[in-house]
Amino acid sequence: MHPTLILICVPFVSTIYTLESWPWGEVICRLSETGKDISIGVSVFTLTALSAERYCAIVNPFRKLQLRKLPLVCATIIWIVALLLATPAALFSNTASATLHNNVTILFCSPYPPDWTTFPKWMTLAKAIIYYALPLLVIAFFYSLMAQRLLASTKEMPGALHAGQGEAQAKARKSVACMVLIFVIVFFICFLPYHALELWYYYSPTAEYDYNDWIHALRIIGFCLSFLNSCVNPVALYCVSGVFRQHFNRYLCCQRSTLHPSCSSRLSRTAI
Questions:
Q1: Where are the alpha helices (DSSP H) in 60-105?
Q2: What's the CA gap between 56 and 73, in Å, rounded?
Q3: Which of 15, 25, 84, 242 has CA 20 to 30 A from 159's CA?
Q4: Tell me: the pLDDT tens digits for 202-221?
Q5: Which positions fall inside the G-protein coupled receptors family 1 profile domain (predicted)?
Q6: Going by C-beta distance under 8 Å and a sequence separation of 6 or more, which residues neighbour residue 6?
């Protein structure tokens, strides 16, 4: 999870769901919304780029040695694109007032100008496409090709190898195929509620009247899931990857057990 997401977004954005009125002022509102878009953009685009890099690493594992500067170039492009896409939030985020049914006036932080009726709809749709739909399609595309490549490579092994090292390698590749599929599912689940509720709120003509405690609870769940996506992948990787689990236990849990030779060779062949 990016530091900006923890220091800027989470403490302030979480108050939207716990306090009736925004207490931090317009500057913090603009800073929070901008930081949120930057962090989500960097996280999503990095995950998308990693899906392509992992596929290329499996198809041609020696090519990455020839392109050592490519990760730096990709990281620079990702940050530039994320900053550009966060520009509307930096320019238009503001605090607005609203009067509730009991004649109580509250302030809320809005990423859109209050007088622009169609702008929020187009921005919400654009964010759903740029931050969710397109990355999901790209990730699913590369991970599907990756899974097919891994499973096909196990069938291409000579039959004599299946009794020894080839069998272990086939098992490792199937494990990696399962792992990357889990990553796609995690990405789909974590960001679906957030974007679905945002689209419903801005495109349903009766959204403000239909909004109730249940929808508010779903919105909180969607908010939590969207931020949890940044830290769910290591947990999923720990559950499905024995090599990652052994490294985690060894270096972070201070368990000094050495890796089994088969695990070490498996890591070198299936690293992504």
A1: 70-85, 87-92
A2: 16
A3: 242
A4: 899 898 888 888 988 888 88
A5: 1-237
A6: none
Residue 233 — very low, low, confident or very high, per pLDDT cuts 50/70/90?
low
β partners of residue 107: 97
Cβ atoms of 220 and 17 within 8 Å: the answer is: yes
In this structure, what CATH number is given to the domain that contains residue 252?
Answer: 1.20.1070.10
pTM over 0.85: no
SS3 of 9-21? HHHHHHHHHCCCC
3-state secondary structure of 266: helix
**Count: domains in the chain:** 1
The answer to whether 197 and 215 are in contact (CB under 8 A) is yes
pLDDT value, residue 61: 61
Do the Cβ atoms of 85 and 111 come closer than 8 Å?
no
Q: From CA 102, how far away is CA 98, in angstroms rounded? A: 11
Rounded Cα–Cα distance for residues 234 and 245 (Å): 10
Cβ 133 vs Cβ 198: under 8 Å: no
Average pLDDT value over all residues in the chain: 77
Paired residues of 99 in beta bridges: 105
pLDDT in tens, 55-93: 877 776 655 555 667 778 888 999 999 999 999 999 999
Domain that holds residue 256: 3-270
